[in-house]
Amino acid sequence: MPSNTTPGARPDQGHFVAALEDTPIAPLDKLDESQKARSTWADAWQSMRRRPTFWISSALILLVAAVALFPGLFASAQPNDGCELGNSNGGPEAGHPLGFTFQGCDIYARVIFGTQASVTVGILATVLVTVVGIVVGALAGYYGGLLDAIVSRIGDIFFAVPTVLGAIVLLSVLPDRTPVTIALVMSIFAWPQIARIMRGAVLSASNSDYVTASVALGVSKFTILVRHVLPNAIAPVIVIATVSLGTFIVAEATLSFLGIGLGEGIMSWGNDIGDAQSTIRTAPQVLLYPAAALSITVLSFLMLGDVVRDALDPQARARR
Amino acid sequence: MTQLVTQTVPVLDPNDTRPLLQIRDLEVGFKTQYGVVPAVRGVSLTLYAGQTLAIVGESGSGKTTTAQAVINLLAGTGQVTAGQILFEGRDLTALTPKEMENVRGSQIGYVPQDPMSNLNPVWNIGFQVEEAIKANSDLRGKDLRARTIEVLKEAGLSDAQDRLKQFPHQFSGGMRQRVLIGIGLSSRPKLLIADEPTSALDVTVQRQILDHLGTLTRDYGTSVLFITHDLGLAAERAEQLVVMYKGKIVESGPSKEILANPQHPYTQRLVAAAPSLASKRIQAKKHDEAAEIYSAGGTDTALIDRAAIREEQAPTRDLITVEGVSKLYRIRTKGLKYTELLAVNDVSFGIKKGTTSAIVGESGSGKSTVAKLILQLETLTSGRIEFDGRDVAGLTGKELLKFRRRVQPVFQDPYGSLDPQYNVGNTIAEPLLAHKIGTSRERQARVLELLDQVSLPAATQFRYPSELSGGQRQRIAIARALALKPDVLVLDEAVSALDVLVQGQILNLLTELQTELELTYLFITHDLAVVRLVADNVCVMQKGRIVEAASTDDVFDNPQQAYTQELLAAIPGGDFEFGGK
Q1: Integer Cα distance of B154 and B220 in angstroms
Q2: B430 φ, ψ to 5°?
Q3: Measuring CA to CA, which residue among B35, B37, B86 is closest to residue B62?
Q4: CB neighbours of A222 closer than 8 A, spacing ≥ 6?
């Protein structure tokens, strides 16, 4: 502690020198080799796996995926076998834990078998939107100029039309409404959002010093886009894509509810929710269960999106 | 603490033996997901009324954290874990948030580091100053307005009345810092904490601001707790000095005594590294010396001949010639109207092979633009740049690639110039890959060789930039620039962002590499002290023009232009006697 060695100094203000044992000097700017090397993605993984939300949402998503791929494993009967009108809007029974629909079909089986169509639409639309959005947004943001102006205006035109409204108009004239067509139609109106985000991220990444450094090193322009700009701009798009998967499933349900979604013969949560309209007062369970399946699926994608955002955005992580 | 703001100058007894601020065994920690990380470990210091005390340390030494603990503004998850902060005998760590608000501003003022981000861009200056005064007094209406103008005038803004309605972006950095100082002193606090108040400003502006701050605090008898990384600045502006290292105080006491007679090895290193006008160029063997060694041996005539030829050539031909170069930027103002900005105005100079030239200037002088023009990252408006006898303007394709191989840049910001997604090995190998040099095994070997040249262990190649310190990143950037065995390195403020000891280390490394690889350097910097250490020739730039160009010794010993003299005079601690020199 401070000692007074200077004559005439005020109390506690003499020349104090800490003992060297107390304040050992580390070698100047030496690399700490004891710690393991970590990339941004490894860091993100470290941060994600510590969050219970990540594990809960992933488990739910895996479950939904398994149900979508192998519905037969989860429900013994085919959903439309053994529909008896006598069971119309019936309550739970042995072997039929969730009760029956208006047509007397097993609700549980319909929810299980409806997963596939809903999830297919969600995944397909997300993949389409993401790929188109990334390519268009990256090219527009990176090359700029006329290309950017044209592409951005085209994007704005589609952006101005709400996805569901645009889909209603288009679907009402399409003869065949399969999960693929629904996904395509929704993608047409949804890609500008991703493209805009990508364009912004690419713009900021291509202004960074490491890009200038690569230019000065003689790396070609396209190589820089692929190797430096894209990997650094992709994070926000991944976050939006995760969240939008949920919203596409909801959009499909909305369209089907309105009767212009998936065709009559295709089982989906949206169609079932739409069918339940008429009996909503007398037999709410018919509406409740497919709606619950929908909510849980969408919720788990939203939760995952949240966790991914926190993991990829170190500032959000620091606030935690 | 019932007493309200006193508008009169407090009467202070210089022989008052009660300390104003006493920090005892302060410990501050930051909570992270890995547990509490200590940032300040057992700091004690004493400050009396009317004194100025400077805390000096490199980044991460805990100096800012100590200051923030005093006013209870610790960032994020920081908290005081032990110790006392006695302000006029009251322990600040024990106060409730409400009580602390009464102390903050009215009793203890604070001037933050970055004038660019500490004023709210959507409110005008008058509003922001009024807000600060309102919080600490019951002045309202006309009185408040009058006081606001008074505060700004005191801070050195003579036309305060007319500028009240202006917004921060209409103020220069120096003026914004004046506003912040005005806010900090507006309620005549007994203690002012100034956290690196001028590190974002040019040296000449820094001097004005600090002179003004010194006058104000002396007039009001305010004590100042001054946080800085610059030992020269601390010595010049404070009677008392506290040197911090890794959260602990290594040495404290009267400034002059510490500088003249540093005891702790860390302080000794800091004092030795403090660049001053008295320092000499870092010595490295030059070509002519090498030639002498050969001739003394007298065994290899071919080598002597070659050295002789090189010596003959060296003084006559410049490797880089810049002739009457100008760069005009068109800046869009409103709608389709443009104003023109002449960033570089008729600049000419030459760089000889194997030498180090420096371009010095303050922000906006056009020095970085010159570097970009030479690197072919911007196109010339007029003039001519020759490299090795060839005009480089408008090179394209293969020729441009060839040029890029020989002239490599190192940028200022070691945090921005490396791709965070790339590990070090890939980063260094990138230029080799881009020019399709060698097999993957050869490239790997070259990466290891380069890491060795910049004194980093081989294991560094698997690291990512986020795991490295600023100095280490700058080494990586240098290694990447050297990968193609260039002739010229253009170093744009390459050491400005580093702590002084690390800066010295990098400058030493650059000097060694220069001798070893016969490199030619062009340093772009605002720091005259750095120039003194490494450069053979200097061009001083002001507003796009070169105002003085000569050898380093000439410029420092016998500056011809008033501007150069002003720059030299503004170097903090420039005329200080440092111990051990």
Answers
A1: 11
A2: -55, -50
A3: B37
A4: none
For residue A17, which residues of chain B lie inside 8 Å, CB to CB? 250-251, 263-264
Q: What is the pLDDT of residues A273-309, one digit of tens each?
A: 888 878 878 878 888 888 899 899 989 988 988 888 8
Write out chain B residues lying below 8 Å of A43, CB-based. 466
Beta carbons within 10 angstroms of residue B401's beta carbon? 16
Residues of chain B with Cβ-Cβ distance to A319 below 8 Å are 76
Q: Which among B406, B417, B421 is the top mutation candidate for probing chain A, defined by the most A β-carbons within 10 Å of its own β-carbon?
A: B421
Residue B462 has what DSSP assignment? G
B528 vs A124 pLDDT, higher one: A124
Q: Which CATH number fits domain A118-319: 3.30.160.20, 1.10.3720.10, 1.10.3370.10, 3.40.50.300?
A: 1.10.3720.10
Which DSSP string corresponds to B513-556?
Answer: HHHHHT-EEEEEES-HHHHHHH-SEEEEEETTEEEEEEEHHHHH
Q: Which stretches within B321-457 are classed as H helix? A: 367-374, 397-406, 424-434, 440-453
Pick the CATH number of B21-272 from 3.40.50.300, 3.40.630.30, 3.10.50.40, 3.40.190.170: 3.40.50.300
The dihedral over CA atoms of B548, B554, B555, B561, expressed in degrees to the nearest 10, equals -50
Taking the model in full, what pTM does it have? 0.78
The vertex-B63 CA angle with B60 and B65, nearest 5°, equals: 85
Determine the residue of chain A that is closest to B489 in CA distance.
A216
Which residues on A lie below 8 Å from B419 (Cβ)?
A: 210, 214, 228, 231-232
- As given in the structure block, the two tokens for residue B274 are 């403090």
- Cβ atoms of B19 and B10 closer than 8 Å: no
Segments in chain B below pLDDT 70: 1-17, 33, 275-316, 333-335, 573-581
Q: What is the pLDDT of residue A37?
A: 64
Q: Is B576 helix (H, G, I), strand (E, B) or coil?
A: coil
Interface test with B, best of A12, A222, A224 (most B CBs within 10 A): A12
Tokens representing B66 are 């100590």
How far apart (Å, rounded) are the C-alpha atoms in residues A37 and B104?
43
| CATH classification number, B290-569, choose in 3.30.2130.30, 3.40.50.300, 3.30.70.20, 3.30.70.100 | 3.40.50.300
Strand B390-391 and strand B382-387: the pairing is antiparallel
Domain assignments of chain A as residue spans, ordered by start: 118-319
Nearest CA distance, B19 vs chain A (angstrom): 9
Tokens of B18: 């009660």
The three-state secondary structure class of B496 is: coil
The full 3-state SS of B345-384, as one line of letters, equals EEEEEEEECCCEEEEECCCCCCHHHHHHHHCCCCCCCEEE
Each domain of chain B, given as residue ranges in start order, spans 21-272, 290-569
In tens, the pLDDT along B207-221 reads 888 888 888 888 888
Helix, strand, coil % over all residues of chain B, rounded to 5? 40, 25, 35
Nearest CA in chain B to A28: B502
Are the C-beta atoms of residues A126 and A244 closer than 8 Å to each other? yes
| Structure-token match 């209406």, residue found | B141
